[in-house]
Amino acid sequence: MGGVVAVRLSHIGAAIAALMLLATQAEADEASAGYIAGTCNTCHHAGAAGTAIPALAGRDAAELIAALQAYRTGARQDSIMHAVATSLSDAETSDVAAYLAHQEPAP
Amino acid sequence: MTRWTRRDLGKLAGAAAFAGIAAPAIAAASARVVVIGGGPAGATVARYLAQAPSRLQVTLVEAESRYHTCFFGNLYLSGLRSFDSLGHGYETLQGKHGVTIVHDTVAAIDSTAKQVRLAGGGSLAYDRLVVAPGIAFRWDAIEGLDEVASEMLPHAWRGGAQMQLLRQQLEAMADGGLFLMSVPPDPLRCPPGPYERVSLVACYFKREKPKSKILVLDSKNSFPKQELFQDAWNRLYPGMVEWLPLDFHGGVKSVDPGARTVTIANDTFKCAVANIIPPQSAGSIALATGLANDKGWCPVDPATLESKLVPGVHVVGDAIIPGEMPKSAFAANSQAKVCAMAVAALLDGRDPFEARFFNTCWSFLGPDDAVKIGASYRIVEGKITAVEKFISKVGETAEARERAARQAEAWYAAIGADAFG
Question: Which of B198, B214, B220, B394 is the most buried (most CB within 10 A)?
Answer without folding.
Answer: B198
